[in-house]
């Protein structure tokens, strides 16, 4: 059942984003920022954690999950370091994921030799 919940929740998030792209004049960058900010706000309100437990990877993989990770990092850093944690927390919480994406993307580009479109 965990796989089914992850599949339909992740699909629902993707469908909502696709509707936003098709029916509004919002650019993809703005929609991505909206998703990250929504994840952070839902995490701050305490709504995202129960949602994450229900949906699993369907909620943690999209950009909503990235916003929630940023919020958790900022919250922990504020508890440890005070005001300066606002600036440090997001970097420390998301560093592993961003570093992994960069390194794996670079390795994939070495293996598959991408070319620019003309």
UniProtKB/TrEMBL annotation:
Could you list this entry's UniProt keywords, alphabetically sorted: Membrane, Transmembrane, Transmembrane helix
Bilayer-crossing residues are 6-24, 31-48, 83-108
The organism sits in which domain of life?
Bacteria
InterPro entries in the cross-refs: Spore_V_AE (IPR014204), SpoVA (IPR005562)
- Classification via PANTHER family: STAGE V SPORULATION PROTEIN AC-RELATED, STAGE V SPORULATION PROTEIN AEB
Q: Which NCBIfam families does the UniProt record give?
A: spore_V_AE
- Kindly provide the name given to this protein in its UniProt entry: Stage V sporulation protein AE
- Organism, by scientific name, is Lachnotalea glycerini
């Amino acid at each position: 059942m965990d796989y089914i919940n992850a599949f339909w929740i992740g699909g629902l998030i993707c469908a909502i984003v696709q509707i936003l792209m098709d029916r509004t004049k919002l650019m993809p960058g703005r929609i991505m920022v909206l998703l990250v900010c929504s994840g952070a706000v839902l995490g701050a309100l305490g709504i995202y954690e129960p949602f994450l437990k229900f949906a699993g990877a369907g909620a943690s993989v999209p950009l909503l999950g990235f916003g929630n990770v940023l919020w958790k990092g900022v919250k922990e850093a504020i508890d440890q370091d005070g005001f300066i944690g606002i600036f440090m927390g997001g970097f420390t919480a998301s560093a592993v994921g961003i570093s992994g994406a960069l390194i794996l993307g670079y390795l994939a580009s070495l293996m598959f030799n991408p070319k620019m479109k003309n």
